[in-house]
Amino acid sequence: MANFNPKRRIEEDSSNDSSGDEEDDSQDEDMGEEEQLGENDREIQVEFAGQSPIAEDFHGIKSLLHQLFLKAHINLGGLAELIIQQNYIGSILQQCVGDDDSDSEEDGNSQDEVFGITSVINLSHHKDVECVKEVKQYLLEKTQKKLAGLFNNSSNQIGLLFNERFINIPPQVSVPLMENLCKEIAEAKEAGKPFDFTHFVLISKLHESTGKDSERKKKKTKGTDILWVNAEEEPISEVGEVLGEYSVRSESDSAVSGTWDEDDEQFDPKRRIVLIDAAQLPFMLTKIKDFLQ
């Protein structure tokens, strides 16, 4: 059994904290804003819970893995099964269910939907598993074999980090999920389980501006033309070593679906592969907290 609180509540406010005076002063403005919002545009407050993955979460986890790997030749079902089998490591993100939600079966059991997954798989320990072989081949191709030396050294234990969630969920939820993952990795290592990592690999999702206004580009500073799908992965990229970055424009990416007007700034969906030394994990977590403050 996972040493994990099965209902760790992660509350997400729909607006920033404000004092009573500010609330009174802005009441009229808020009412005006609300009148301009459509029925589907209004913000709501949602409370999430981190839970250990179980068999019923298979399809939800597989769907989240698909938004990362898209059309890559990888058995995502096999990866999802590995994540579930080691359910003492990692968490899925689900909506908290209150007493007033007892009749939610009529809503299609939406409380059981998997909104996010935070976990790690030991690519070295599972090197003979077919889906892991496919992941390693994918990483080698996308990094021009920069990871070959690490993979070929039997003394290395390389973990593939998963940090996936629905696109509209704020990045603040990543902090307790990452904290819990670090704690579980330490506990598993102490118990003699194969989680004594030397390195971690993270595949980040980002969008890079493809605007052709040369004058605008000259005024930009480095990195300002990049949008991160998961904002907390920006400081992770700074802590680790970037081994590869590539476009996935030719693949179906729901994060950038829709049509673009000619004058709109356009973005190229990309993936970035980052290598992190395992000793830097606590520092990485500190950087994430500081970045999201």
Question: What's this entry about, in short?
Answer:
It comes from Daphnia hispanica. With 293 residues, the chain is of the alpha+beta class.
Please give a structural write-up:
With 293 residues, the chain is of the alpha+beta class. The protein has one domain (47-97, 111-252, 265-292): 3-Layer(aba) Sandwich (Aminopeptidase), CATH 3.40.630.30. The protein is built from 10 helices and 9 strands. Strands 1, 2, 3, 4, 5, 6, 7, 8 and 9 form a 9-stranded mixed β-sheet that branches. Helix 3 (58-69) crosses helix 4 (76-85). The longest helix has 17 residues, at 174-190. This is Protein BCCIP homolog. One of its GO terms (cellular component) is nucleus.
CATH topology: Aminopeptidase
**Biggest sheet features:** 9 strands, mixed
Question: Order of SSEs, N→C?
Answer: EHHEHHEEHHEHEHEHEEH
Compute the separation of the termini in Å: 33 Å
| Number of alpha- plus pi-helical segments | 10
Mean pLDDT: 81
Oligomer: single chain
Q: Mind telling me the C-alpha Rg?
A: 21 Å
Number of domains: 1
Query: What's the architecture, going by CATH?
Result: 3-Layer(aba) Sandwich
InterPro entries: BCP1_family (IPR025602)
Organism: Daphnia hispanica
Family: Belongs to the BCP1 family.
Protein name: Protein BCCIP homolog
